[in-house]
TrEMBL record:
PANTHER family: COILED-COIL DOMAIN-CONTAINING PROTEIN 27, FORKHEAD-ASSOCIATED DOMAIN-CONTAINING PROTEIN 1-RELATED
InterPro entries hit by this protein: CC-FHA_domain
Species the sequence originates in: Sapayoa aenigma
Keyword Coiled coil on entry: yes
Protein name per the record: CCD27 protein
Keyword Coiled coil: yes
Region (Disordered): 158-177
Biased composition (Acidic residues): 167-177
Coiled coil spans: 4-100
Signal peptide location: none
Top-level division of the source organism's lineage: Eukaryota
Record key words, sorted: Coiled coil
Length: 177
């Protein structure tokens, strides 16, 4: 009896599942028929459109695409004009900078030449200064010898006294007079 009751329960469960599946099948069949009806209605509607309406729709779409493309072309032309303007400005800047570089190079060359001339003049002045110092030393030496001779001649006269300290040029001149 346990096996029979177990089998009966299984039979009831399977019958319940069968009813549920049949119910779902009917619902799906209904949905399928509804969708077939909708599809048929859309198909009928689409077929009812005349060839002329299709051409109008295509023409409208093409006009819309043309407007869109014209807008893109206008934007790109505007960007191109801005880029050309920027390129022109950059070319002007490059030309100006090249001119400034040329001017700077000329100034540097002129300054270099002026520096060489000044250096040459400085070397000439140093040489002249050296010659002048040598001449001054020679003259100073001759002057000292001459002064010494004057002092000897002045104080070698009879009745004159030898100086006790170093004499200045004015004292020598007084003694000589």
């Amino acid at each position: 009896t346990g096996a029979i009751s177990s089998l009966q329960r299984q039979l009831e469960i399977q019958q319940s599942q069968l009813r549920r599946i049949r119910s779902e099948k009917e619902m799906l069949q209904r949905q399928l028929r509804e969708r077939e009806d909708q599809l048929q209605a859309m198909s009928d509607k689409f077929c009812s459109l005349t060839e002329e309406q299709r051409k109008e729709e295509i023409t409208a779409k093409m006009e819309e695409e043309n407007r869109s493309l014209q807008q893109v072309v206008t934007e790109q032309e505007s960007q191109l004009a801005e880029q050309n303007k920027l390129i022109s400005e950059l070319q002007e800047t490059i030309a100006r900078l090249r001119a400034e570089v040329g001017t700077s190079r000329r100034h540097i060359l002129e300054q270099t030449q002026a520096q060489k001339e000044i250096q040459s003049q400085a070397e000439a002045l140093q040489h002249t200064e050296l010659q002048t110092r040598v001449a001054l030393e020679c003259i100073s030496s001759k002057f000292e010898r001459y002064r010494s001779k004057i002092i000897q001649a002045t104080f070698s006269v009879e009745g004159s006294q030898n100086p006790s300290a170093e004499l200045t040029d004015e004292e020598v001149l007084e003694a000589m007079q």
